[in-house]
Design a protein that fits this description.
Blueprint lengths: L1 E2 H13 L4 H16 L3 H6 L4 E2 L1 H15 L4 H5 L2 E3 L2 E3 L10 H13 L9 E5 L5 H9 L4 E6 L2 H13 L5 E4 L7 H8 L10 E6 L4 E2 L8 H4 L4 H4 E2 L6 H13 E10 L5 H10 L3 E7 L5 E8 L2
Parallel strand pairs: 5-6, 5-8, 6-7, 8-11, 9-10
Antiparallel strand pairs: 1-2, 3-4, 11-13, 12-13
Helix pairs in contact: 1-2, 1-4, 2-4, 6-7
The structure holds S-adenosylmethionine (SAM).
Length: about 300
């Protein structure tokens, strides 16, 4: 038999190797909550309780994986976004709090009462954290999402299913596809491509290859590089393609929302203006860093 308190101490030791103290405590709580449904109070009140061999092996196995540097969300296969639980694995970026702020900005711009029949597209959807949360909070919208990664789309489908929302997913490379491919998402059986998008959002890869070495091992060794990195010589590659193609498939007055690296905000504003976008607005995240940009396209 194993005492819960012994396992808690074992976990603290294991986590102290790869986490700051405060972070380690949070990870510890996440592990016990997810694996044994024990909350912080239980960890104190039931410290002397005995665990079965099976429970012990399960938790010890989790700590072993965490010691390798694997992110806790990938070990537990769960990440929280907009108060919703998402399945995650090695094929998708772990949803970030900054991206919640992007979603909140969209919701603020498009209040629930208005805009009942919005056509909404997420480019590079990953876990589908953006379209699933938007779909939950704006159920009347028509939601589309694409990604170049088949395995990521499998995760996205799984999350749409578990949250019981209807999202039209497509396997598409935004760098290689043309306007027709994007319009066919909305108009699968029509030749005139009448329908256009009201809102396009993307959190594209934006970390320069050269920045990889300075990133935390949890990110660079475990999260998909296809979701993160862009060539040093062309860090705006995704933004350029997305801005160009969005200008071709947005309704007049349609909105583009993008997450960005603070170092790119000035360049990105100029890029959007050069493509004819108006009302370009940069927003800071919770930490006061330029983190997102929106613009309106008028034909
Ligand atoms: C930074 S992640 C964002 C994931 C998710 N939207 C989020 O915010 O958590 C970028 C996503 O873009 C996808 N991606 C990379 N290259 C792409 C391409 N050429 N066309 C479409 N999607 C692409 C990746 O697979 C990844 O899921």
């Amino acid at each position: 038999m194993h005492k819960l308190k012994d396992l808690i101490n074992q976990g603290r030791n294991a986590l102290s190797v790869c986490y700051e103290r405060h972070e380690a405590e949070n990870v510890l709580k996440m592990v016990f909550s997810s694996a044994l449904s024990l909350d912080s109070k239980d960890l104190i009140m039931k410290a002397d309780a005995d665990l079965s061999d099976e429970e012990y092996r399960k938790i010890a196995g989790i700590f072993g994986e965490l010691e390798t540097g694997k992110p806790v969300q990938q070990v537990l296969h769960e990440a929280w976004f907009m108060d919703m639980k998402f399945y995650v694995d090695k094929n998708v970026l772990i949803p970030r709090p900054e991206t919640e702020e992007l979603v909140l900005w969209i919701l603020e711009r498009f209040p629930a009462m208005d805009h009942s029949q919005i056509n909404f597209l997420d480019i590079g959807t990953g876990s589908a954290c953006i379209p699933v949360s938007i779909s939950k909070l704006r159920p009347s919208w028509n939601i589309y999402a694409l990604d170049v990664s088949g395995p990521a789309l499998e995760v996205a489908q799984k999350n749409a299913l578990s949250h019981n929302v209807a999202i039209n997913f497509s396997l598409l490379d935004i760098l290689a596809c043309d306007k027709t491919a994007l319009l066919s998402l909305l108009n699968p059986s029509e030749s005139n491509n009448e329908n256009l998008f009201d809102i396009i959002v993307s959190n594209p890869p934006y970390v320069k290859d050269s920045e990889m070495s300075s990133m935390h091992v949890r990110v660079k060794s475990f999260e998909p590089h296809i979701a993160l990195f862009v060539p040093d010589e062309d860090p705006l590659v995704f933004y350029r393609e997305i801005a160009l193609k969005s200008s071709q498939v947005l309704k007049s007055g349609g909105s583009l929302f993008l997450e960005l690296n603070e170092a790119l905000s000035a360049q990105l504003s100029d890029l959007l203006l050069s493509f004819g976008y108006k009302d370009v607005e940069v927003r800071k995240d919770f930490f006061g860093k330029d983190r997102m940009i929106s613009a309106v396209y008028t034909h």
